[in-house]
Design brief:
Blueprint lengths: L1 E5 L2 E6 L4 H5 L1 E3 L2 E3 L16 E3 L29 E7 L6 E7 L3 E3 L13 E5 L9 E4 L1 E3 L2 E2 L8 E3 L2 E7 L7 E8 L4 E2 L3 E4 L11 E5 L6 H12 L4 E4 L19 H4 L11 H14 L4 E3 L16 H6 L15 E5 L2 E5 L11 H11 L8 E5 L16 H14 L3 E4 L5 E4 L2 E2 L2 E2 L5 E5 L56 E5 L3 E7 L4 E8 L9 E6 L22
Parallel strand pairs: 5-29, 18-19, 19-20, 22-23, 23-24, 24-28
Antiparallel strand pairs: 1-2, 3-4, 6-7, 7-14, 8-13, 9-10, 9-15, 11-14, 12-13, 15-16, 15-17, 18-30, 21-22, 25-28, 25-29, 26-27, 30-31, 31-32
Helix pairs in contact: 6-7
Length: 558
């Protein structure tokens, strides 16, 4: 059968060649099979599957201590550390970021002067760095985490540097070093590979992780991720969990349980420095694109939030027309990524919503056939943890994304794994995106294991809205087997697969219509799959709806 989007509804309009998939579709030297091989979304919708919790595997969700060699400062003076790469909007530009100088924490902190150390990157295509080397300068900053309460320790960061390299060749290895050559404080030589030219023929291998933290489980997740050799990493929120600590360094798996009487939600900012040092073995070589999670809120004086997140990562916000670090977009080969903020206004009158309208209107599906959404809190989640927490975001944005033909959506927040059938407005829909939750990176809050559809687990509706964003949009289901109820009495039909385990995912887009998604569990070998499926686009069956006349689409619907 063939479906067409029209104002959010689905209309039967014809027939599509499904038999090609059943017989096996050959591309790129690989054969994708339906029956008897890796399943495809064309075989769905699938009967919901819940993999029972493996009680023998809990992992080790205990934070690395400050004296662990992997998180200790190993440089001197203003030598660079915590080196990372992130992408700009297109293949010919990347950002290099690092930290120089040490942080301070206590009562009498004296912020470093960002202008006292230069931000320089030397780079080229030759490893020796003696020939054909170019030099680019950027900017630097520091941030503070300050508390207006006696007894709480304040924090000021080292100097954070961001340098944007431009004019790069596609799909090319570059060698680089960063720092300030005038004071002989340069890093060693690192390397990265640029993204391929955006076209229907070119796609990077993408690693996807969420809710990492810095536990022994995290080290397993990151090691497995590195072994799978991604070209790009997406971090779907919640990096360090510094806000599970008091400013004196005392931590807990549950802040509100252990520290309910603190006058403000404290954080221990050195955990950001520990995390940056540990992650450098990955982020100095592979670009990482992050979006904020709730653990990045980190309230402080004057109601300031997201200070560490906004300062430490480089974002292509300006390049993508965004005025905020909380949402932006970029291309990676034939994929256009929209990184949305779940903790900044998203209603239809908000800057974010208007930016999203403009960004989607300018997506050229002839150049980037795949459209992927990324944000932290999931819209489709069947665990008790964060159940229907961001319904207001879904209500505001789902139709816009559906009409634009978003193919896949990645989220975190829930500390488990879940993949949906194609779904729109809680209804099975062959033109809806596949939602994938990978909030199972390994943080110390441990795994989510209870499902809202199990007896006695359905949350009270008034308790579900996100406390930071507020609003209440979560209502009972109005159709289907759960009509009139707030929760299903069995695993919902839109939930295809769920499992409580730590891990990461790999997305390998093969061509304009087929992408292989693989979820890897930490307890398995890095190259074994816990869940695997080909996600198949059907642009003729599900054409993009025309934008409003005030917006310009590169390719109009047919």
């Amino acid at each position: 059968m063939m479906f067409k989007r029209e104002g959010g509804s689905v209309i039967l309009i014809g027939f599509y060649c499904y038999v090609l998939i059943l017989l096996g579709f050959v591309f790129g030297g690989e054969i994708v099979k339906g029956d008897g091989g890796i399943p495809t979304t064309l075989d769905g919708p699938f009967t919901p599957v819940t993999v029972p919790l493996d009680e023998s595997f809990r992992g080790n969700a205990v934070d690395l201590p400050s004296d662990d060699p992997r998180v200790r400062r190993t440089v001197n003076g203003f030598q660079p550390e915590q080196i990372s790469i992130s992408l700009s909007t297109t293949h010919d530009s990347v950002w290099i970021s690092w930290v120089t100088g040490d942080y301070q924490i206590g009562d009498n902190i004296k912020p470093l002067n960002p202008e006292s150390v230069a931000s320089v990157v030397e780079y080229g295509k030759v490893k020796s760095m003696k020939k054909q080397t170019q030099k680019t300068e950027g900017y630097s900053l520091i941030y503070n985490q300050l508390y207006p309460f006696k007894g709480l320790q304040n924090y000021t960061s080292g100097i954070i540097h961001h340098v944007r390299l431009t004019g790069l060749s596609p799909d090319t290895v570059y060698y680089y070093r960063c720092g300030d050559p005038s004071i002989k404080s340069m890093s060693g030589v690192f390397h990265f590979k640029t993204m391929p030219v955006s076209s229907p023929k070119n796609y990077p291998k993408i690693g996807i992780v969420g809710d990492l933290g810095l536990t022994y489980n995290t080290t397993s997740t990151v090691s497995h991720l590195i072994q799978n050799q991604p070209d790009l990493v997406l971090l779907v929120g919640d990096a360090t969990y510094a806000n599970l600590y008091l400013t004196n360094g005392t931590g807990s798996d549950c802040y509100s349980c252990s520290f309910s009487n603190t006058p403000i939600h404290e954080t221990y900012q050195p955990r950001w420095d520990f995390w940056g040092r540990f992650m450098q073995r990955l982020t100095s070589k592979v670009p990482i694109m992050a979006i904020e999670g709730n653990h990045e809120i980190e309230e402080q004086v004057d109601n300031t939030t997201f200070a560490a997140y906004s300062a430490r990562f480089a974002f292509p916000s300006k390049e993508s027309g965004s005025k905020s670090t909380m949402y932006y977009s970029f291309n990676a080969g034939g994929i256009h990524f929209i990184m949305l903020g779940g903790y900044i206004a998203y209603d239809k009158s908000s800057d974010q919503y208007k930016w999203l309208q403009r960004d989607l209107a300018n997506v050229n599906r002839e150049v980037t056939p795949w459209l992927v959404g990324v944000w932290h809190p999931p819209w489709y989640n069947t665990y008790v943890s964060h159940y229907k927490e961001v319904e207001c975001m879904r209500v505001a944005m789902e139709e816009l994304l559906y009409n634009a033909g978003v193919d896949i959506i990645f989220n975190g927040h829930v500390h488990a794994y879940e993949r949906t059938n194609r779904v729109y407005n809680y209804t099975l829909d062959p033109c809806g995106p596949v939602h994938i939750t990978v909030g199972d990176g390994g943080n110390r809050e441990k795994m989510a294991v209870k499902h809202a559809d199990e007896p006695g687990n359905c949350p009270e509706p008034s308790t579900t809205p996100d406390s930071f964003m507020g609003g209440f949009c979560a209502t009972n289901f109005t159709s289907g087997p759960a009509s009139g109820n707030f929760c299903w009495d069995r695993q919902p039909e839109y939930s295809a697969y769920r499992e409580s385990s730590f891990g990461h995912g790999i997305l390998e887009v093969k061509n304009e219509t087929h992408a292989l998604w693989t979820w890897h569990r930490n307890q398995d070998m890095y190259n074994e799959s816990g869940d695997q499926i080909f996600i198949v686009r059907e642009p003729e069956r599900c054409p993009v709806v025309k934008a409003k006349p005030t917006l310009k689409l590169w390719r109009s619907a047919k």
